[in-house]
Structures are given as structure tokens and as C-alpha cells.
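Entry 14. Structure prediction run on the chain below.
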Amino acid sequence: MGAGYARSRPPVHPLILAEASRALGRSEPWRRALDVGCGAGFSTKALEGFAAHRVGLEPAESMLGWTREVAPQARFVVGGAEALPIDRGVIDIITAAGSLNYVARLDCFFSEAERVLAPGGIVLVYDFTAGSRFRDSMLLAEWTEAFTSRYPLPLTEGRSLSPAILGKLDPRFHLIAARELTVALTLTPSFYVDYMMTETNVAAAMRRGISAHEIRSWCETTLAPVWRGEPHGVLFDCYWACLARADSNTSETIQDVIDDAEQD
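Output returned:
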């Protein structure tokens, strides 16, 4: 799974970060960024160009074995979101790409975020659904239904989050900006199979004893008539949500920028 996250995930992260930066009126890179739940470092690499100094935090040490390949210019540390191994007041932006869903104690995370953020610092949470439909047909959506029926998602696999939920999670932080968007990426059939092998329902199936070879063989066989050997535009539904400390005036500054942009 670490190799898959290092090499076979779609490059959605930088597109979401670019859209969020534009909406927040950010013209200069942040000074220091902390990427919580960075996995193999793919989401930390996406911060290149958006933050001068980047630190990835990951509780599963084995995932960090791929970070030198993925993001050699970033720093990485083993740790959990509930106890950030970071000094007080030194981080300008905390990012979390689909990782807060798996944090056991979000109240502890927000307490730690309040501690490590510099004045005016923000938390940027974002996520995207699996690319499960084509831009121009229903074939991939129909295949996805068969895929998740054959290899179901674990019932206890994380919590649901959205901008509305995030805005009410902790009184120390409030929602100052959010967007939902759809990103289209042109993918090849072989990349898509590799990508599907990194999905959580595949990991769950392997934990139940189904071999990776069996799952890949089924995917390749059933996807062949769907893709017909040609690249296709695949759609990803995404969101990002920006949170600031309740005692910060960042909300007024950012919301003014967003309001001006929407009026233009």
C-alpha cells in the first residue's frame, strides 16, 4: 500500500491546493506547513510551491519509507494528530488530506493545532472521492458499483466529514471559507488499475485473505471493456475547508477577499 500511495495516486492534491490558495487570496507561499496524516508523502509533495518549508506527519512509520522517493525536499516525522511533535506557534498552515476522518480524538487534534499555529495560522482540510465516473459515459460508474459490491468498504472505515461538519467540530476553530468542486483528470487504463489497488476496500479485502493478484486480475478483466485501451477523463468530487482560531481576525480578512472575488 505504501508503494501504491507513492506511485499510483491521482494528482488531485495540488489542484485543490491551488484553488484554495486563489480563493483565500494567497499570492505568496506560506512559510511553514505541517501535513497531518501524510501517508507516503504524496500530499506533502503537493505543498511544493505553496509552502517554503514542509513537514509531513504520519502515525504509520512503514508508510514513511517511501518519502525520499516522493518528496525528498520535505521533512517527515512519525506521530499522531492528537500529540503533534511540533513547537508552539511555528506553523502557518496545517493541511489534512482525508486524514482527520481517522483521528480518534479530534478534540485533542484541535487543541494541538491551536498550540502549534502561528498568529494568523489556518487549518486547511480537504478530501476527494475516488474517481468513479467518466466525463462522457456511465460505464465507469457502473463498474464502480460492481467493484464495491465485490469488495465492500469496511463499515468502520473512518468518519464522514464535510465543510459543514468541520465548522461545528470544535469551539476553538471556526469555518472561514470552503468550496466544493469537481476535478477532471485524464488517466490511462493501467494507471487506473494501479490506483484502484490502493483503495481502502482493496486493503480490507486483502486483510480478509484475498490475494492482491486475484483482485488485480478481476479489475483488469472487468475494466478492459470499460476503458477499451484508451485514456479517459475521470471525475473527482472534492472539497476544501479553511478553519481559523475563534480568537483570530483572519476570518474577516479572508472573507473580505473572497467576497470581493465573487463580486468581480
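The two ends are 45 Å apart (CA to CA).
Filed with the rest of this week's runs.
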